[in-house]
Queue: 2 jobs
Job 1
Amino acid sequence: GQNIDQPTEMTATEGAIVQINCTYQTSGFNGLFWYQQHAGEAPTFLSYNVLDGLEEKGRFSSFLSRSKGYSYLLLKELQMKDSASYLCATNDYKLSFGAGTTVTVRA
Amino acid sequence: NAGVTQTPKFRILKIGQSMTLQCTQDMNHNYMYWYRQDPGMGLKLIYYSVGAGITDKGEVPNGYNVSRSTTEDFPLRLELAAPSQTSVYFCASSYGDNSNQPQHFGDGTRLSIL
């Protein structure tokens, strides 16, 4: 099975950087996904990591350490539209989702 | 290209009623999934399908049934609605075995059981 932990809430200022941590314990591992979910909307894909290291996509980066069961999502140059819930999900040929981290960006 | 389409968007049911949540995708994806999302909780997998004619239970299948007669459609059936089934239901699809293919989600069905 999967056990995924991520912080419940984070608050940051527009233009700042925020790092959302995700730790997991899994019996099988085939990659880790990050999704963004705005209130009342469907989750949308942000990033995927299967090998250790950093993947960068514009203002968003995601890091994975398989030996530590740890990932983080880094959001740079925060904008108001980045206020959303961010879901960490491990892949064991089925996705298991964490409860999500609600990020609030303040002006 | 509509992606994943769910109907209805909202529904209120009485305890004991039944209904079917519809899901269709036009991306020719083999894999389809049903999740429920309760407030403050992550998405919980109800059922999934790896292709037409094949379905399997997820983490929380009790009280639900599915069928997959075509590649495009994956309806979710509630036979005897209970208050515990009040939730937001998301249907998703992906191209392959999901090893590196992201799931694409529908807009959700908000269901209340009273």
Job 2
Amino acid sequence: DTEVTQTPKHLVMGMTNKKSLKCEQHMGHRAMYWYKQKAKKPPELMFVYSYEKLSINESVPSRFSPECPNSSLLNLHLHALQPEDSALYLCASSPSNYGYTFGSGTRLTVV
Amino acid sequence: GDSVTQMEGPVTLSEEAFLTINCTYTATGYPSLFWYVQYPGEGLQLLLKATKADDKGSNKGFEATYRKETTSFHLEKGSVQVSDSAVYFCALSDSYGGSQGNLIFGKGTKLSVKP
């Protein structure tokens, strides 16, 4: 298995909803990442987990809450989002500096 | 801090034309360099990589050479196809003492190939 799987592929949520994005990999990678990508922009790093511990939080608002239940899973819990949070959310994993594998992303729309 | 600069797009070419997308970087350590491709509506796919100076990465007819003297990693393809239409991101990952680096992206270059 050489993939990073993200679910759901599309999500529409209201500003008072609570939802979660899920990311899964079975490549034994010990670093996992959440990125946010707005239209026509490069991905922006949000969080990094290394060996299941949060190692980097790029000043992300608390309405985004990451969780790494085990070495294969990464979740992003969403609560009280704003319309400007609408974006493509990408998960990635990496064993080292020699390549990051990205998932196909969750396209989130906040209404 | 570390940064990546790539040529502004969009780039429009006819099928079978030669492609060059310029990428230069600034880094204090010993970065690994990457090209990622993003097709419409999809996530990022690793196209090729190089981990040290003078390495040449290649894949699907694309190639790029890690030039430390010019701090560059230009992407080239001899004959583009309509299916190559996508956004291309140059990126670097730096490491310090073997620790995990994080990806730093250029702004992306949109390529459109016309039949």
